[in-house]
Design a protein that fits this description.
single chain; 313 residues; alpha/beta; Rossmann fold; seven-stranded parallel beta sheet; three-stranded mixed beta sheet; 12 strands
Length: 313
């Protein structure tokens, strides 16, 4: 499939961080992008070049309208972890994609998924969506990412990193993890949409290097030019903080991944795949140090005047 052919892409989740990164990259490469949002127009993040309709994944007609005329689709589910609701969303998406004759749908599971069933809603609802999409017969490529570097450039991590040299995250320090950025995800989605012969495949995408917590801190230290130490944050504490932003149900869903990892049941779940996905997609994740040097960390500095100036620029 030629990358030069303009695609008409239905992007589910474009008003979120991950889907937004995908939408931006697609528009940069002159593809037409449409999305759907329940938010009123004034409450949506700016997405230049993206057509956004008001609607709900739970309403089949709204989803059919989104997919009307689409040649391709990129899907990430919202932070919803109720099985039947996710099943309904996935069914509406699958039926709309089939009806529109979508040539390929790329599904970002938003997490790795263990081989065996678990009691963790964050895994099992994403497994449900994947199964519904696959059973529909739509040409499908599944991407399962590990953890995003962008999680660390946030009001919860940035100040401690810049001012104290502390990288706190709810993963045990000895868990090997393949990190990637939202931009890396977008590159992987674009490749999964355009590279020939990928239909039916599932990729555990991630960084070229698998890092423990200490190794991640060392990479951040090199990027920031200062000593950084890793602090394993208790998943319970992480969940409590997240609930203030996302609400209790969504926070419990997200935190379920970290409770699972803390239990030590599957230490390698978030590790790399020995370059399989990078080779198939011809996409290399950005090295951690390089990603760190590109971020405007000064916005988290202690100096209020400096912080205000950086925020305005």
């Amino acid at each position: 499939m030629s990358e030069q052919i303009q695609m008409r892409v239905a992007v589910v989740g474009a008003t979120g961080f991950q889907g937004g990164a995908v939408a931006r990259l697609l528009t940069e490469r002159n593809h037409r992008v449409r999305t759907l949002s329940r938010r009123p127009e004034g409450d949506r993040p700016p997405l230049p070049g993206v057509s956004c309709a008001t609607g709900d994944l739970g309403h089949a007609e709204d989803v059919r309208q989104l997919f009307s005329g689409a040649t391709h689709a990129a899907v990430v589910m919202p932070l919803v972890y109720e099985p039947e609701q996710v099943r309904r969303y996935a069914r509406n998406i699958a039926e709309a994609a089939v009806a529109a004759g979508v040539r390929r749908l790329v599904y970002n599971a938003n997490t790795r998924v263990p081989r065996s069933a678990t009691a963790v809603a964050a895994f099992e609802t994403r497994r449900i969506a994947e199964e519904v999409l696959r059973d529909s017969g739509v040409p499908l490529v599944v991407l399962r990412p590990p953890v995003y570097l962008d999680n660390l450039f946030s009001p919860w991590n940035g100040p401690a990193l810049v001012n104290e040299g502390v990288l706190a995250y709810p993963l045990p320090a000895d868990v090997p993890t393949a990190w990637l950025s939202h931009r890396d995800l977008a590159e992987a989605v674009h490749a999964a949409l355009t590279v020939d012969g990928l239909e039916g495949r599932t990729f555990d995408i991630g960084g070229a290097r698998t890092l423990t917590g200490e190794e991640l801190a060392e990479a951040f230290g090199r990027g920031l030019g200062r000593r950084v130490r890793y602090q394993a944050l208790a998943p319970r504490v992480f969940e409590q903080g997240l609930a203030q932003v996302l609400g209790r149900d969504a926070a419990a869903g997200v935190a379920g991944i970290y409770h699972y990892m803390a239990a030590g049941t599957d230490r390698l779940l978030l590790a790399g795949d020995d370059g399989v996905s990078a080779g198939a997609l011809s996409v290399e994740a950005t090295p951690v140090e390089e990603w760190v040097t590109r971020q405007p960390w000064q916005v988290w500095a202690n100096d209020p005047e400096e912080q205000d100036a950086q925020t305005l620029t």
